[in-house]
Design brief:
Blueprint: E1 3-14, H1 28-35, E2 38-48, E3 53-58, H2 64-73, H3 75-78, H4 86-97, H5 106-126, H6 130-133, E4 141-149, H7 154-166, E5 171-175, H8 180-194, E6 199-203, H9 210-220, E7 225-229, H10 237-246, E8 251-253, H11 260-268, E9 274-275, H12 284-297, E10 301-302, H13 311-323, E11 330-333, H14 344-347, E12 354-358, E13 361-364, H15 376-382, E14 383-384
Parallel strand pairs: 4-5, 4-11, 5-6, 6-7, 7-8, 8-9, 9-10
Antiparallel strand pairs: 1-2, 1-14, 2-3, 4-13, 12-13
Helix pairs in contact: 2-5, 4-5, 7-8, 8-9, 9-10, 11-12
Length: 385
């Protein structure tokens, strides 16, 4: 089998009414106008001479046409290659920019989407779901948490928590990072509202300095929080270490990291308890396997991150969650950036390979590849050329 065509699609859905930043970011009043002005992603489509087509996603948080153009630029390296040779192709693409310092950023995100599309082809060619290629179904039913309860005022936050409970979730994540008093008040209110039997985790999106994170963390211990996610900046390994050694709550991070090298620093220097790479940012499935082995060697749990990516990323992440024994819970994204405008890249692009969702647990389908059935009308409607 040979690759006959590679195409990248930059998809952008403008958010019609301006929104306040739904997560913690610096200079929010200014940056929200750029960061949260649209839903965006880049999809990769790879075709073969045997009529098998694979789909992948590149995580995009800025300038989606830049990622698209990188994929198109490396297309000649892929033409005529055997798509089953995922390890070789990964190293080939990585070698293109390795000695230029590109261990993270737009190039690695582009590589990620290509790699994922190749794994989709591999599964389809062998008539197996990708999770079976990764070692089988370690988790036949995947515990899922609703993500996320965003900054939208206390009444709306509690209404969101109630909706998640009614949908059958037994776990959910709260976005914090608005300030010490506001954050503690929000967590306390949600805990009181949902009761002690619901698992809660909190996500700061790197919004604290180390001392603030320590103060908040000590208060959070009262509310039985499952983990404290991205409390400080991604490269603040000393801060992560201090938090890990000072708090009883497990510390999580890794969505802002890329390859195994940065994740290694987070584990070894930061001493985190949980890593959360996103397959569409961190080099695709091929690199996720290496990161998972690294985490296992240090007895650190590997959880997938889906964030506000498209449904393609969520499908890929489900396969990783099914295959990895230590992936004890899945981030099941339920909340769009705008509460008034749904994200069609999340809800309409493809159905997820989910057979059932009952009592907070997902049962995965067994369709070949990632089980994607892409609605190309959504691509054509939202494509930026």
């Amino acid at each position: 089998m040979k690759i006959t065509n590679v195409e990248a699609f930059s998809l952008v859905v403008p958010i019609e009414n301006p929104i306040k930043a739904p997560i913690s970011i610096p200079y929010a009043d200014e940056l929200e106008k750029v960061v949260f002005k649209e839903y965006r992603t880049v999809l990769v489509k790879i075709e073969t001479d045997e009529g098998i087509t694979g789909w992948g996603e590149c995580m995009v948080r800025l300038a989606p046409t830049a990622t698209r153009d990188i994929v198109e630029y490396v297309k000649p390296l892929l033409m005529g290659k055997d798509p089953m040779n995922t390890e070789y192709i990964w190293e080939l693409l990585f070698g293109t920019m390795m000695n230029r310092g590109h261990y993270q950023g737009f190039y690695i995100e582009a590589l990620s989407g290509i790699d994922i599309a190749l794994w989709d082809i591999k599964g389809k060619a062998l008539n197996l779901p990708v999770y079976r290629l990764l070692g089988g179904c370690a988790n036949s039913k995947i515990w899922a948490y609703a993500s996320s309860i965003r900054f939208r005022g206390m009444e709306t936050m509690l209404a969101t928590a109630q909706k998640f409970v009614e949908q059958g979730f037994s776990a959910m994540k709260i976005k914090i990072g608005q300030g010490y008093k506001t954050d503690i008040m929000a967590v306390a209110a949600v805990r009181e509202h949902v009761g002690k039997d619901i698992t809660l985790m909190v996500d700061v999106n790197c919004g604290y300095d180390t001392k603030t994170a320590l103060m908040v963390g000590k208060e959070l211990e009262k509310y039985h929080i499952r983990w404290f996610e991205e409390p400080v900046a991604p490269d603040n390994y000393e801060g992560y270490r201090r938090l890990s050694e000072s708090l009883d709550i497990p510390i999580a991070g890794g969505e802002a990291h890329f390859l195994r090298y940065g994740i290694k620093d987070l584990i070894v220097k930061g001493k985190v308890d949980i890593i959360q790479p996103n397959a569409c940012r961190t080099g695709g499935v091929t690199e996720c396997l290496k990161i998972h082995g690294l985490a296992s060697a240090y007895n650190v749990s590997y959880l997938v991150h889906t964030g506000s990516s498209s449904a393609v990323c969520m499908a890929v992440s489900l396969h990783l969650a099914a295959a990895f024994t230590d992936c004890f819970i899945f981030e099941y994204m339920q909340s769009d950036w705008s509460k008034d405008q749904r994200n069609p890249l999340r809800w309409d692009l493809t159905t997820l390979p989910i057979k059932s969702f009952e009592k907070g647990y997902i049962e995965l389908d067994d369709k070949p590849g990632f089980g994607l059935e892409i609605n190309e009308e959504v691509i054509n409607k939202n494509r930026v050329r």
